[in-house]
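Inverse folding, one chain.
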């Protein structure tokens, strides 16, 4: 039986936290769980990407009232694993382009009850990392600019959804990069489970911005 595509009404819009400012970090991880159903914290190590954020070693605890995912933009995942196991996120995503084999990392995460995810950059063809996609609970299609807020979505990356589904039909698929009111409808109708939103929520009223995205994801027809 062919699996049903993800219904737009079931698509999760998860706020993302990407910052090097401790005060902003504290504010956002306290704010987003008051209205969102899931959130993502981005960690950038300064090696995999030139910028840096609040490191996972500086995070004392994660919010417990909603699932929290970690998106680890790091070169050497094994060096970050001890603190990830301590924090016990819902999901931890490492990049297929990291310098280490992710399969042993996935095994340790799953043994600790943490879902394992793999992120693929625009230059990475899903078939070249098939072994990771088969082993993962989540595949994150990255379509923005690493380590920065406010990137523009490369919508051509949507083509990877079908390729990922062919490798692992039931895997959860996420999208990161440039989610906005201009493209959320298209993305929500593209068989993607989770849309991670960053800069589009950096407004005076993040809850209202999130609710607008949630409403727009369900719309059908051509936007004019």
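Residues assigned per position:
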């Amino acid at each position: 039986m062919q699996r049903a595509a993800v219904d737009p009404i079931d698509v999760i819009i998860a706020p993302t936290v990407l910052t090097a400012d401790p005060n902003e970090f504290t504010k956002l991880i306290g704010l987003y769980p008051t209205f969102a159903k899931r959130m993502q914290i981005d960690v950038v190590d300064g090696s995999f990407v030139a910028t840096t954020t609040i490191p996972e070693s500086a995070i004392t605890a994660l919010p417990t009232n909603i699932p929290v995912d970690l998106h680890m933009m790091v070169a050497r995942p094994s060096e970050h694993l001890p603190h990830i196991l301590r924090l016990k996120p819902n999901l931890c995503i490492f990049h297929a382009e990291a310098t280490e084999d992710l399969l042993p990392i996935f095994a340790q995460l799953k043994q600790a009850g943490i879902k394992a995810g793999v992120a693929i950059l625009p230059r990475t063809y899903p078939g070249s990392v098939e072994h990771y996609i088969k082993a993962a609970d989540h595949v994150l299609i990255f379509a923005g600019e690493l380590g920065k807020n406010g990137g523009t979505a490369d919508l051509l990356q949507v083509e990877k959804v079908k390729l990922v589904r062919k490798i692992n039909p039931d895997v959860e698929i996420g999208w990161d990069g440039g989610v906005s009111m201009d493209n959320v409808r298209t993305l929500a109708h593209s068989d993607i489970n989770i849309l991670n939103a960053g800069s589009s929520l950096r407004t005076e009223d993040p809850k209202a911005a999130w609710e607008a995205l949630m409403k727009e994801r369900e719309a059908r027809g051509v936007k004019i």
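The CA atoms of residues 46 and 52 lie 5 Å apart. DSSP finds seven helices and eight strands in the chain.
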